[in-house]
């Protein structure tokens, strides 16, 4: 993996040089991990002529990420003192090395940290690196996709086991905690994001935080869960009915959301504008009379972060590339009644390779549990 990280840093170095910066300071946690391998939260990476430097905050526990970085060609510096700021230390080192310009991730720096960088290296010209690393991260390599595939398998396993247990009478909070425990049991580092479980009138709410409401007969039960495996994050959302058979309104609503989700999945292809994927799913729900109930987006990218580019929204710019993993996750919530969310993680593939690769494979049939 060291060669992979080195190649990624070389790409960033070339981009910085082309823009007129002699060095780059990367401070976003996911971006640091992408370029340097596992590192403690708050670490900063200085990409410069000569040997790149990973600056880590003082960690009295001595984590493995500090003492044994994956990118073995990096120089690792653990700062002394609890108040040491890796980004500030990186700017100092760049100036000491004779750099005249330094590109920084302004969107990952507070105003006060940016001022601190300038104060310790007043002769260093600071430029905005912008989302350069995030753009590099968009297209995943085979190993990244393999990690995402395993993360999806773990989430599928955890959800499948939950559905085989007794659900009536248990609280949303209890079910969410059990799902997260099962993720770890199957090899995940932990959940990719706070697990959402909604029952009855809470079902179908995007990002619903589990409450103490208990599962009842006749409820919709919606679940959104994801696994973090080696830093890569999957996402799956499903909706079920509790009881022997769903009501007519539940079947109708489920079929509408399912049709929208299918339209969004089928629109995924290299070269497709991101907004067209959103539109493909959104028009189905608008035609069903749910236009005002559809959320601001139909999906988003996944990888080292659960919510990253590209965004599948009505105003999204840009087009999809092959080997870009995204979610397609439309939902509709009817106030006071409940709702449906269906969410998959997929990898964009050309038609010649079979079209979009579905990573989350738990059935999307409307199951009565």
Automatic annotation (TrEMBL):
Q: Which Gene3D superfamilies match?
A: Creatinase/methionine aminopeptidase superfamily (3.90.230.10), Creatinase/prolidase N-terminal domain (3.40.350.10)
Query: Could you tell me which InterPro entries the record lists for this protein?
Result: Creatin/AminoP/Spt16_N, Creatinase/aminopeptidase-like, Creatinase_N, Pept_M24, Peptidase_M24B
Record-annotated Creatinase N-terminal domain positions:
8-139
Q: Where is the Peptidase M24 domain?
A: 147-349
Check the record and name the Pfam families matching this protein: Creatinase_N (PF01321), Peptidase_M24 (PF00557)
- Highest taxon listed in the record's lineage: Bacteria
The molecule here is called Peptidase
What organism is this sequence from?
A: Streptomyces hiroshimensis
């Amino acid at each position: 993996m060291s060669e992979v990280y080195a190649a990624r840093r070389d790409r960033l170095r070339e981009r910085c040089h082309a823009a007129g910066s002699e060095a780059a300071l990367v401070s976003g946690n996911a971006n640091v991990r992408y370029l340097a391998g596992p590192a403690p939260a708050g670490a900063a990476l200085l990409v410069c002529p000569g040997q790149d430097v990973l600056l880590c905050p003082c960690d009295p526990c001595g984590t493995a990420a500090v003492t044994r970085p994956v990118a073995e060609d990096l120089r690792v510096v653990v700062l002394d003192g609890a108040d040491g700021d890796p980004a500030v230390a990186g700017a100092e080192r760049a100036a000491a090395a004779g750099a005249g310009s330094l590109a920084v991730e302004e969107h990952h720096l507070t105003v006060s940290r940016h001022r601190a960088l300038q104060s310790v290296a007043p002769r260093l010209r600071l430029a905005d690196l912008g989302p350069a690393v995030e753009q590099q991260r968009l297209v995943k390599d085979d190993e990244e996709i393999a990690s995402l595939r395993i993360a999806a398998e773990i989430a599928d396993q955890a959800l499948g086991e939950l559905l085989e247990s007794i659900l009536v009478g248990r609280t949303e909070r209890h079910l969410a905690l059990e799902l997260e425990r099962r993720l770890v049991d199957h090899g995940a580092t932990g959940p990719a994001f706070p697990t959402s479980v909604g029952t009855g009138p809470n079902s179908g709410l995007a990002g619903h935080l589990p409450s103490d409401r208990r599962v009842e007969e006749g409820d919709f039960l919606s679940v959104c869960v994801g696994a973090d495996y080696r830093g890569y994050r999957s996402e799956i959302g499903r909706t079920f009915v509790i009881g022997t058979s769903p009501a007519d309104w539940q079947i109708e609503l489920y079929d509408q959301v399912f049709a929208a989700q299918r339209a969004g999945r089928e629109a995924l292809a290299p070269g497709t504008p991101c907004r067209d994927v959103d539109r493909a799913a959104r028009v189905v729900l608008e035609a069903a009379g749910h236009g005002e109930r559809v959320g601001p987006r139909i999906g988003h990218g996944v990888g080292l972060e659960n919510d990253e580019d590209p965004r599948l929204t009505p105003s999204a710019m840009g087009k999809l590339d092959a080997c870009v993993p995204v979610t397609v996750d439309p939902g509709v919530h009817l106030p006071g009644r409940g709702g449906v969310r269906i969410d998959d993680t997929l990898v964009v593939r050309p038609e010649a390779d079979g079209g979009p690769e579905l990573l989350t494979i738990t059935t999307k049939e409307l199951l009565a549990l």
